[in-house]
Structure formats: C-alpha cells, structure tokens
Amino acid sequence: MRENASDNMDLTQSTWMVRDLGQAASDVLLLEDDSVIAGGWDGAIKYWSAEGDTLWGIETPNRISCLTIESDKLYATSGLHLLAIDLETGSIDWQIQLEGSADAVVVTEKGVIASSSVYDIEHNDFLESAIWSVSFEGEVLRTHRMDERPWTLQLSKQNVIAGLGRPKSGWIKLDASGTIDEQKEGWNTPTICSSKTEPILFGRADGSVVDMDEVVLHQMNESIAVLSNKKDLLLTADDSGKVDALISNKIEWSKTGNAVVGLEHGFVHDDEVTIWIARWNGAVGSLCVRNSTTGEEIARMEGERIHAMSVNEKRIGIATEGGQIMVWEQTLFERRSTQETSTEEVDDHRNSMLAKLRALRK
C-alpha cells in the first residue's frame, strides 16, 4: 500500500538546482567537483558549474546515450558516433562513426572502449554488435564483432566487463588496451544489466542476480530491470516493479509499484544512506526517496518520466523527458527536511490547542 505522500517531504521544494536542457534529456553526469553535464535526445550537451552557471553548450549529431569523463576530456556516444570533447571549452576534439548505434563508453588508462549495436526493425532484434578500442587521439585500434549485444559496459580495476545478451550470454573481460582477456559463455539466460561498482554483479532475464562466477545471489520473479550495489546494500528491481533491498543476501525490505526506471544509492540523511527510486506508469513518472535500513519513505515527487540518474557523495541528479535537469544537495535536503518537520510540529501544537479550546466551550 502506498504511503501517504502528504506525510513526506515534497522533493520539488528541496531541489538545489533546476536547469533546462531545451530538449528531452537522455543522460546526466555529476562530476566529483559537483559540476553537471547533461545530454539530450536531439544531441545537445550542456555543462553547468557546481554553482549552477552555464559553462558551455554544444550540438552533436544525434541522441546522447552515454557520457563519461577522464581527466580534462568528456567522451560521449551520439547516435552512430563516438566523440571526444574538451571539458573546459566544449570543443569537439574528434568524432568517429561506429557501426550501428553507439551505446556505451568507458575510459581506461590506455584508451577508450565503446560498444555499438545494429538493430533490425523488421526482425525486432539486434543483428550484430561490436566493442571498439580507440586511442586517446581517436584512432580505432581494434574491433571485436559479435552476434550478442553487450547490454552492459563497466570498468573493473582497469579491465572492462561487458555483459552479453543471447545467443551466448555471459560476459567478456577486456584489458585496458581493449584486448579480450577472458570470456564466460553458455549462460542459459541473457545478461540484462550490471552494477556500477565492485564487485561486478549481473541482473539476468530469468530474474536472477549473479556474480561473475554465476553464483546466484538473489532471485526475483521477473527479469531484472536495474540493480545497484554499494555499501554492503544490494538493491534490485524486476520488470514487475518490485524493489528488494538486501544485506548479506537477506531481504531487509521490499516495495512494489510501477515499472522502475532508475535505482540508486544516494547521500546520507539522518545518518542513513538514502535510496532513490524512479518509476514510470506509462503516463506519469515519480521519484521516491527511502531510508536504506527500513525502506520508509522520506520524500517524493511526481511528474515527467526520468531517463537517467547520477550520484556522488553529496548530490544526486536526474534527467527528465521534459528536458529538466534537477539536482539535490545533501545539506539543503537536510535543512528542508528539518523545516518541514518543524512546520508539522507547529501544526500539531495548533490543532491540540484548538481541541482544548473546543473542550472548554462544552
């Protein structure tokens, strides 16, 4: 049963920053210095400082599907292209065209690793995929073509782990230069998603969450839609909209609802890590903040669909269908929460006094 939203803080009243990308937003990236980069469905990229000032904005060939930074460079997948962008000026250093859509990109100490895929509308399936190794100067060093789509692409101690779909399923490990170092094949079910932090965990189409040795850590009823693993707390969501929170493989709490489109560990609030859950019912989106230990709802808002979420130690940002980039900051969140609590206490005191006055009139 859904908690009474009136008892919780309104997230729209506690944002630290709201900015407009000018088009539907597809990705957002919070940097360590609290600056924010966002990309859109029509190829726009904008960069804001930690204080919210616009630093630059550019147009790229097509929809931004992934953003990542390394040192003073921003790397982006834009439609068919992989781009390297100067973080300070926004100028495009180089761009190369991949085969099919450019899906994801990560950066190692030796170069840039990207994935691409070719989708066939007639067959409603992916026909061919590839993993590309590119030098920092934009030269393609090697290409690994395959029938399986790499649904995930994550860094792991300077290696790159790609979770594979059918027919082989499993995963591929590449070294920092993009050479295939190890491959696990033959899983009976495709890999759908993976964790962003160590240890790398995979969510699969049969509802299982497994480690790289295929040890099942958790089982849900439907395909795993998204998972997040951090601070010994594993969060998993399946296609039914159910979210499970586990410590040491034991379920601490579960919540059900609309389809989960985002799930992240957030900053600390009241000495507890917050959990941010974005949902979508086909018409209205929602964002809910919960206590990681109890699952209790702390704050919520409803509005447009959320397409991406990004977190660091003190902030969390989202990108919405309407082009809004919304950021919450830990200190302001705490302060607004205290203010709302104080208001509730005043209202309770006032109601109590009115009740006493009514009793005296009897």
**Number of separate helices:** 1
Task: Domain count, please report it.
Answer: 1
> What's the main sheet like?
5 strands, mixed
Spans of at least 5 consecutive residues whose pLDDT stays below 50 are 341-350
Question: What is the assigned CATH homologous superfamily?
Answer: YVTN repeat-like/Quinoprotein amine dehydrogenase
Under CATH at level 1, the class stands as Mainly Beta
Average residue pLDDT: 90
Count of β-strands = 33
CATH architecture: 7 Propeller
Global shape: globular
- Rg is 22 Å
Distance between the termini: 39 Å
Portion in beta strands: over 45%
Helicity, as a percent range: under 10%
Classify the fold: give the CATH topology.
Answer: Methylamine Dehydrogenase, Chain H
Biggest sheet strand order reads 1-30-29-28-27
| Secondary-structure content class | mainly beta
Describe the structure in your own words.
It is globular and about 55 Å long. With 362 residues, the chain is mainly β. The protein starts with 8 loop residues before the first strand and ends with a helix. The protein is built from one helix and 33 strands. The chain has a single domain (5-331), classed as Methylamine Dehydrogenase, Chain H (7 Propeller), CATH 2.130.10.10. It is 9% helix and 55% strand.
